[in-house]
Amino acid sequence: MTFDELFDQIQQGKISKEEAQRHFSLDWMETASRYILDVNRGMRTNIPEIIYGEYKTLEQTIELATKLLEEHPRVVVSRSPFYKELNEHFKNDFPVLWSVNATVIGEMPATKGKVLVISAGSADHPVTYECEVILKAVGVEPLVFEDRGIAHPTRVLEAIKQGIEQDVAAVIVVAGMEGALAPFVSSLVPLPVIGVPTSVGYGFRAKEAALTSMLASCAPNLTVVNIDGGLRAAVVAALIAKNR
Amino acid sequence: MTFDELFDQIQQGKISKEEAQRHFSLDWMETASRYILDVNRGMRTNIPEIIYGEYKTLEQTIELATKLLEEHPRVVVSRSPFYKELNEHFKNDFPVLWSVNATVIGEMPATKGKVLVISAGSADHPVTYECEVILKAVGVEPLVFEDRGIAHPTRVLEAIKQGIEQDVAAVIVVAGMEGALAPFVSSLVPLPVIGVPTSVGYGFRAKEAALTSMLASCAPNLTVVNIDGGLRAAVVAALIAKNR
Amino acid sequence: MTFDELFDQIQQGKISKEEAQRHFSLDWMETASRYILDVNRGMRTNIPEIIYGEYKTLEQTIELATKLLEEHPRVVVSRSPFYKELNEHFKNDFPVLWSVNATVIGEMPATKGKVLVISAGSADHPVTYECEVILKAVGVEPLVFEDRGIAHPTRVLEAIKQGIEQDVAAVIVVAGMEGALAPFVSSLVPLPVIGVPTSVGYGFRAKEAALTSMLASCAPNLTVVNIDGGLRAAVVAALIAKNR
Amino acid sequence: MTFDELFDQIQQGKISKEEAQRHFSLDWMETASRYILDVNRGMRTNIPEIIYGEYKTLEQTIELATKLLEEHPRVVVSRSPFYKELNEHFKNDFPVLWSVNATVIGEMPATKGKVLVISAGSADHPVTYECEVILKAVGVEPLVFEDRGIAHPTRVLEAIKQGIEQDVAAVIVVAGMEGALAPFVSSLVPLPVIGVPTSVGYGFRAKEAALTSMLASCAPNLTVVNIDGGLRAAVVAALIAKNR
Amino acid sequence: MTFDELFDQIQQGKISKEEAQRHFSLDWMETASRYILDVNRGMRTNIPEIIYGEYKTLEQTIELATKLLEEHPRVVVSRSPFYKELNEHFKNDFPVLWSVNATVIGEMPATKGKVLVISAGSADHPVTYECEVILKAVGVEPLVFEDRGIAHPTRVLEAIKQGIEQDVAAVIVVAGMEGALAPFVSSLVPLPVIGVPTSVGYGFRAKEAALTSMLASCAPNLTVVNIDGGLRAAVVAALIAKNR
Amino acid sequence: MTFDELFDQIQQGKISKEEAQRHFSLDWMETASRYILDVNRGMRTNIPEIIYGEYKTLEQTIELATKLLEEHPRVVVSRSPFYKELNEHFKNDFPVLWSVNATVIGEMPATKGKVLVISAGSADHPVTYECEVILKAVGVEPLVFEDRGIAHPTRVLEAIKQGIEQDVAAVIVVAGMEGALAPFVSSLVPLPVIGVPTSVGYGFRAKEAALTSMLASCAPNLTVVNIDGGLRAAVVAALIAKNR
Amino acid sequence: MTFDELFDQIQQGKISKEEAQRHFSLDWMETASRYILDVNRGMRTNIPEIIYGEYKTLEQTIELATKLLEEHPRVVVSRSPFYKELNEHFKNDFPVLWSVNATVIGEMPATKGKVLVISAGSADHPVTYECEVILKAVGVEPLVFEDRGIAHPTRVLEAIKQGIEQDVAAVIVVAGMEGALAPFVSSLVPLPVIGVPTSVGYGFRAKEAALTSMLASCAPNLTVVNIDGGLRAAVVAALIAKNR
Amino acid sequence: MTFDELFDQIQQGKISKEEAQRHFSLDWMETASRYILDVNRGMRTNIPEIIYGEYKTLEQTIELATKLLEEHPRVVVSRSPFYKELNEHFKNDFPVLWSVNATVIGEMPATKGKVLVISAGSADHPVTYECEVILKAVGVEPLVFEDRGIAHPTRVLEAIKQGIEQDVAAVIVVAGMEGALAPFVSSLVPLPVIGVPTSVGYGFRAKEAALTSMLASCAPNLTVVNIDGGLRAAVVAALIAKNR
Predict the structure, then answer these.
(1) Does an H or E element contain E173, and which?
(2) Nearest to F224 among A224, A235, A244 (CB)
(3) How confident is the model at residue F34 (pLDDT cuts 50, 70, 90)?
(4) Which parts of the sequence belong to the PurE domain (chains A, B, C, D, E, F, G, H) (predicted)?
(5) What are the residue ranges spanned by the domains of chain D?
(6) How high is the pLDDT of residue B5?
(7) For domain F114-242, which architecture applies?
(8) Which of A232, B104, H14, H44 is most open to solvent, judged by the fewest CB atoms within 10 Å of its CB?
């Protein structure tokens, strides 16, 4: 029913107010969903398909990944407790790159651009490696330096130096505890910095201290993602690097 | 002792101030409990008997459910860690509809009215299915669409379209993480929407983000229940649908 | 450019990858916005136009309200610090019903259905009256009982009794402090109850105690809105009442 | 060294400023600890010796309890994970009254006075029973009514009625979730009420909702203890009842 | 309509399910409110009438107080911003005892029993004086020692000594900042102690530190009221003292 | 003193352990500060000099700005309460572009690249305009669309469409309340999105809801800055756009 | 009454259990307060008398200060809103050193030892100056460097260099926002560092970010005081410096 | 490339703006890292090497410790879940002093100075013993008194007396629950006091109550470390004692 038809029916009293209202809403929906085909989100946003694995069973995850791999060159599974089993299942048919937090199944794309990844401590490794894996999956080369906390200023400088030499497009800083590495790095580079606060630490607001600190920093070139949000930082950094 | 008798005793000094005060309070209680028979709460509020199972042993739960089933056509057990054992125990004598969060033991009533249930992701399934089970137990037909997060706008539209076509009386939106599905759906329907924030997510305020978001929304037709409060959302939606 | 044309250009190497990706996204947008006319949200959701007045100047608010009144029979201004000035400005041309939290400019609609509104204390009056004003603006008759806190159980019973006698479709409970009135009322009525926690109180979590309490309640027929969210409670209750 | 001696030494320059200051402090300490004998705290405060068992090993707890029982008629062990083993160890030599939260080893005293204990739900049983055990250990008779939540107002009234009839000196209300039982009971009795918020509940501020609610209540005769603080409520109620 | 009549009408099909359910609920309410006369709450709970003045205008407060004074010997107004104006208005007709937090209008009752009130610092004076005023209004003699913080242990001991000499029935400790005075005093007296955390302090959780501290204390004879809740502490202490 | 000299002195026992340690640290500092000339931070990070004005007096701010303008073509003053006075003071000598949150004094640079700025409501204007001003100051063209909240999906689509048509390099989403606009926009663009949560809203966690929501979102291309952190979002977006 | 006398009375049945218990407690108090003379706390702890001025009137503060100055060479008034009036009142009779947060009235003592004070920004000035004033009042020489935030690493190095050259005994770091200056400085000095988080900042946990960050730091030589707690940091640093 | 060379290239247009900016930053880094050799942090800060063991595998920890022991006389491993296995592994080759929270491998240094350590309860033992172990590892003699909570004032006095007699340089107070021991001890000693709040306790803010309390205290000679931060307290106290 078109809007005009609806209008006429109302004027001629052939339709009750309640029914007209319902049809009107319905019509709007119908129109919208007929035309807005749910085109591939991956294609629209230029990011591999991501399966959020945290609450899924192994069977659900394999089924979903298998289906997506029929139409996509690669798929990312994030936060699955079954990363080892996924590797076992897929490794004969696809290249698999896995970490505790993220697994990529399928061929890696060619890379374009580079991103510098600096972590504060070895305890931040799982999130740091998640960044590395995802950067590769999106097609950007990661340049990774681990265990460069603020307690060792010269080791931080070394990492930044190499990053700038190799012309990285963005910097990811992975840090827990008080997270001071992020504003320190930000003050030294003329680039967008993405802070990934980790849940490493103990005591007062143990899991939130780094996030709090990074948000409160006055460094003007620093943005932040959720705690342990390595994937998100990597995707954003990759979008910056690829479009450079 | 009537109030008059009490009054006389006081005036004639036959009773001390302390005792009089105590008797007076007592009297009030006696009167109240004589007349306010504890009529069946289920009958008064039109909702099946609900056993809160979280802290009860299997034995306590079975005993309580059995006793209630003698007088009621059905009983709901919520949040019991023994949902599987309950099914085993009762399935030969009663129809049982169980989920992780809620189990219904006994015949389902005939349905009157419909409620649309939309969830953001497959991780929200336990709460979504809890809504479905409870809606049936109260006598309303659920129309369920899962995994319709805001990342796929057209899939949301499709669900809403079908809900309006089938003339649902209310909408339940089950969503974790940032919970943005609830205000989005609310902006598209001329109906009461009940948001069920779930504890799905990780990082900063992982379990509270959806609740925070739904409360803060400016959507005027959205109310909220407790985190993972599927049962409550289903009961309220059912009361709306049945009385329509 | 159609998808087919785009596909051809890609295959024939006439377009770079970056440009193609951009056009593709653009196309999707173009299609969507050509077809999804932004039909009147008020008509779609059956709620009067609402101007959020909190951060607007008097001039901005008057201009916006005037414009909306040209096409709508009435407009709601919520949380404007200029509620008195708005009344002065519009009262000669329109009926105005104002409170501290919400002002309605324009003719009130005829009512259909009733909603019971109970408040805990006289300090909750501004929010209670906001509910009353909005219910009228949406076209539902409010039945209001104020100052019926849990300290006076019989006064609560009296209010509920009258509500049920007059066949209300839903109950709004407005309460601050520990908010115990909401679960108490919920346990006594076979109806949807909407709790509006207010910011009345002092001391520990003064402004959040009632919200915390209402969310935590085990009353199965109680949903909640934001603190001091009278408007939202009234709109939802009205949608229930009008469709009954 | 007396103060006078110290003064003289300073005046005559026989002692440096730093040393004098140190001796002075030391002197104060010496005097204090010579005269303030650490008389039995139990005797001074009229409460049985309490061993905080949460972080102690079984061996430590047994050793400490055995030693205290040599000088005291009874000892309380609170929050020990070894309550069962303690019972096994001591039951042949002493009467033992144990619950999940508190164990009393030794003869119970004769009782004087009564305290009413009302709990909201059966999930609150461990804390409720802790109150009962401690009241007996301090020498007061508990009058216990469980599962009397606000959803069943008449069952609450029945409990209060019996409490007043038996002339209790104080009321303990044990309640989780939204804790509304405490202000409701407080509004009905002319007695001190001690609210014990429990950690029963789920969702938003699950463990703190009852505490928040009881603190925020405007009931003037209600005080509160820590979450799950049954022991503390029982001790205070007993002190009130015994001195009446 | 009696329950029997209702039952018959249902059996004979003279009444619809919806209407029956509504009448049933209504009936319950009618019965309850007919018999539960709202007897004077003050008389039932033995506490003077209290007007919560925080959100009321001067006019509302005067009107309410005047009305209550017609039937009661005294009335308490708590947290009124108009305490000075109230004094001016009533002082010719009634004795008035006012403080920043609480005003008592009307004759003070004779006292029975004593309560010890100790405050940590002079900044706690408004809450301390509120305790004093309310104790007098309920009919108990206050014994007040101010500025006895834990930094001066001997001054605390002096206050306690006098309290025990005069045989007080309970102790109120008023303290802000870290509130350590409350557990310290509790460890020294064989009496119920009521802690009143005040909002005095600055920095981290400035207003909540004393509350947190008092709740966390392991002193078994200490209960707590809301922040700055002098009135509540005084009422409870008075109930203990008067019934001794 | 060189390290060698220090080493010799130690070996020959000419220096105490304490002094050596102190000199050693000192030496390290001396070296560092001799070589690390504090080169212009603006030059190093490619961002105009920013004066944090919140706690400075007008005089301090003018003095500092004047001094910086001698060596830099432009200076930014953020969060100064004296933005109007600053305009008055400098407008005769420099072009001034001011908003409530940020003022730019000096010639604007030529622009390179574009950034899309979308805000949810008109209440977000001050932060939105701050983004616009800063983007211009860094040399990027802003494309601004205000008042495009999620309640009007088609208006959002229109803004995104224009942004993609004009080939923006990044998107800034400014939103308060539940902040759902940020994940919604993120799901529709193949670009880095920077969410700026604002402090617009009321009720529960009024000022933090948008931040919580944006952090919790599962949109992989969304990073976040501090609440009301328009400046930081603009600087990061500009760095992306300029290097593209 | 001695303990022996009490014991005899009990054995001979001349005293009731209640009375004996009361006398016993009393006795303990009497003994304690007779012997523990409240010697001057300032003398015992080696710190000037401090008047907490926040909630005191000007009159109360002057009276108290005047009285203390009769017996002490100097007195500190902290957080008085009347610091200017205090200066006016006392400046003719005493030297006065005042800041917004702390005022010292009386002759300054000779200094012994030095403390390095570094602040992050000029907004931290009031707290920084409070440290300076108090250090002088306790008799230690402050070495102050302001506006040395982590954004300017070489300016931080310069300050540390001078501190070590002058052989300071401890370092105070005053910083708001993300407070990263404190762990950075701590990693560079072989000295105790005292972090003073300030309330400078905006947005998320604006006032608590620096505190959270400093507590979470893994720097092993860093302790922390309350937010804006300059006085406490200065006293502790002075105690370290004076006893060196 | 020197700055001069860079300058020339720019003036002669031989280098683009982007490249010059990158080289400039690079240059700065190169210079800095060439001169700032990462000299041994342990030597610079006078504290043994500390391995943060919480997230490391046993193998990683052993490898790292072995490597450090080649160049250092001792190494500290903090918070390793493998403290027992570390002991087994190293005990044949090195002296090992281990506790649940900290393990020291290698010869202990000679001690200089003393520190008093007082704990509130036996539940605080793991943190107390951590302090003891670390003090020894840094070369200071610990004087430890455990289980001296505020409930036993005279036992506290005894500990302080002995500390002052033995001329300790600083006091560490380890306390959970309400942490009142810290301000109490601070009021009695003329020394720096370092409070270590522990996570011992239950109920409301169980793990944060002692921290909150210690920060809020008005004791001027008290600083605080993170919850359960025994290592940090011990290092700071040792730095004070060794430099005395």
Answers:
(1) strand E170-175
(2) A224
(3) very low
(4) 113-243
(5) 3-106, 114-242
(6) 59
(7) 3-Layer(aba) Sandwich (3.40)
(8) H14
